[in-house]
Amino acid sequence: MEPTQMPWNVSRSREICEGWPTYRDAAEWKNYRSMFHDNAYITTSWTQATIDDFIESSKEGFKHQKDFIYILHRMIGQTVDVQGNRAVSKMKVTITCRMTVDGIEMDNEADCRFFFLLEKRQGKWGVCMMTLLFDKDKMVPVNPNHVFDVPESELEGFPSRYRYLCWMEKKVGRKPKMDLSNHGPDRDILYAKCQDWLEGKEVKPNLTGTDVIDY
Question: Which of 9, 24, 93, 97 has its CA 20 to 30 A from that of 60?
Fold first, then answer.
């Protein structure tokens, strides 16, 4: 890569990834889809799918916000590493999810890190894979005068870094993905994948269950 191309490639990669909170949260699906290559794969806590299937699931969520989870994203910061025609973006994000439980509006806030694996194909940058890791989360009532108890017995078995989010997802009939913690082997595997991606190696997305690829 020519040295003069590096700043542009970094800037373009950043611009693409910033479309996640701006386009998705506003249901700008055409703009959102433009971020990704056709075979892109998305791995989140609530669904794992190709980009087109992920968009359809997201549309359904918007249609049923009253009975589902209303999701918004706050981007805090981002770094981009570029090597040749590949790039990795690591983005600090707070996900906010609103849901009504037993007549009480609740907000879940989850601090996490988004990972975008990008590639330049035929002169166009796009996302090939996206996933995330969770640092911590909490659950609070929207009205501070309300008190809500989440039984500890219902939290057992969920990862400590995002157990309240897992609880919410289970409440709406989604099976939460359990290997997205930003501490321990989940992190080590993903960081190894990011390095492999930059080095031009084949990287497979984390589909369902536990990612057991040897790294």
Answer: 93
Cα gap 35→200, rounded to integer Å: 20
**Residue 195: strand, helix, or coil:** helix
What CATH fold (topology level) applies to the domain 3-198?
Answer: Nuclear Transport Factor 2; Chain: A, (3.10.450)
Residue 180 near residue 132, CB atoms below 8 Å: yes
Residues 7-36: pLDDT tens digits?
Answer: 889 999 999 999 999 999 999 999 999 999
Q: What is the pLDDT of residues 47-99, one digit of tens each?
A: 899 999 999 999 988 887 666 678 999 999 999 999 999 999 999 999 999 99
| Best CA proximity match to 206, nearest among 155, 185, 160, 198 | 185
pTM here? 0.91
Buried b (16+ CB within 10 A) or exposed e, 13-28: bbebbebbbebbbeee
Query: Quick one: pLDDT at residue 165?
Result: 95
Cα(26)–Cα(6) distance, integer angstroms: 31
Q: Which residues are 79's β-sheet partners?
A: 90
